[in-house]
Amino acid sequence: MAWYRRLTLLTLMLCFVVIVFGAYVRLSDAGLGCPDWPGCYGHLTIPQADHEVATAQERFPERPVEAPKAWKEMIHRYIASTLGLLIVALAFGATRLRDPARPRVLPWLLVGLVVFQGILGMWTVTWQLKPLAVTGHLLGGMSTFALLLWLYLSVRRLGAAPTDDAPLRELRSERHLAFALQREAAQGAVDVAAGRPPRLRLFAGAALALLVIQIFLGGWTSTNYAALACPDFPTCHGSFWPETDVPTAFTLWHGLGINYEYGILDARARVTIHHLHRVGALVVALTLTLLGVWLLRRGTGRWRTLGIAVLAALALQLSIGIGVVVLQLPLWLAAAHNAGAAILVAVLVTLNHHAWARSET
């Protein structure tokens, strides 16, 4: 089981790298650095010799070879392919685990998800950065990260090996815990069955759902090149509620054969997207603040720690988001915004995993 935990942790860390580096590729306008897929101008690397460059530019006259952008795109593909191979290894490795409680479905669900991610990556290029495909690719990456974290937390729990006298100590501990929980439950403080604050599953699940919607809005803002549509903060063009055009801003399908690089929407539609992303950030911030404070006040031990983690991750992400606007979208900070979103996902997935665990001691 130890080797499987280490492999899962390695895959999880690589997934985080793929998410952040993918954001860097997109934000540095290198998403079409290679106009074909899965190769780059028909090569496994990028064309470098003079005759290779000439052939590439003859095949793709509308997309001249730009080596720095092409290398960024190909490095991202190499890392993502490695991630896919590790996920397949996790799926087959799970069949070798002897623990009867080993994960059976989740590793193969991850395989299906990473295959779909590959398809979305292809569509991102062949559909010329269509916002629906690029945003879906972002959500798929975050979903892969979340499921890998859930898998790691699950196998880490299974890996706790008992010592010879562990059953006796566990029995005593459970008796002591049961009496303590019954006393606290009489005051409405915790759930007797699992040591959780009451209604934690509902609260944590709702917070995670809101975060998913906000990540979609963030991806939609980035892929429609609306990150600087509101150049001031906290207002947007001097107004707290600017003129909007929601139907145009959130038209998901504009047809194929359109180059979406640098966006196709007018200024009002981009302002709408950016403004609603800010509104979503406010809703998520209020929700997570309430969740974090609630965990600190109603929880003990692990729950208080998770409450601190929620508040810290939220503060980090809000600071980065405000900095992106105030500093006019520096590349490193915009990429860090994606990293902050992944950290928030990790905290809330961890909270939900513990909330749905059978018992917490």
Task: Give the helix/strand layout.
Layout: H1 2-27, H2 50-59, H3 67-94, H4 106-126, H5 131-158, H6 166-186, H7 200-223, H8 246-249, H9 267-298, H10 302-326, H11 331-355
Helix pairs in contact: 1-3, 1-5, 1-11, 3-4, 4-5, 5-7, 5-11, 7-9, 7-11, 9-10, 10-11
Structure description:
By secondary structure, this protein is an all-alpha fold. It has eleven helices and no strands. It has helices spanning 2-27, 50-59, 67-94, 106-126, 131-158, 166-186, 200-223, 246-249, 267-298, 302-326, 331-355. The chain is flat. The two termini are 22 Å apart.
Brief account:
With 361 residues, the chain is an all-alpha fold. The chain has 11 helices and no strands.
Q: Span from first to last CA? A: 22 Å
* SSE ordering: HHHHHHHHHHH
**Biggest sheet: strands, sense, closure?**
none
Q: Which residue ranges are poorly predicted, with pLDDT under 50 across at least 5 consecutive positions?
A: 161-172, 184-194
Helix content: 55-70%
Mean pLDDT: 88
Outline, from the CA principal axes?
flat
How many beta-strand segments? 0
Measured by DSSP, the beta-strand proportion falls in under 5%
Radius of gyration: 23 Å
Helical stretch count? Answer: 11
The assigned structural class equals mainly alpha
Jot down its keywords:
mainly alpha; 361 residues; flat
